[in-house]
Amino acid sequence: MSLDDLPPLRDSLAEHGLTANKGFGQHFLLDLNITRKIARLAGPLEGCAVLEAGPGPGGLTRALLEAGARVIAVEKDARFLPLLEQISAAAQGRLVLVRDDALRVDEAALLAEHAPGRPLRIVSNLPYNVGTPLLIKWLTGPLGWEAMALMFQKEVAERIVAPVASESYGRLAVIAGALAHAQIVMDLPARAFTPPPKVASAVVLLTPRVDRPSAPDIRALEAVTHAAFGQRRKMLRGSLKQLGGEALCAAAKIDPNARGETIDVEGFLRLAKASRGQPSDRS
Question: Which of 69, 116, 161, 205 is least surrounded, with the fewest CB atoms within 10 Å of its CB?
Answer without folding.
Answer: 116
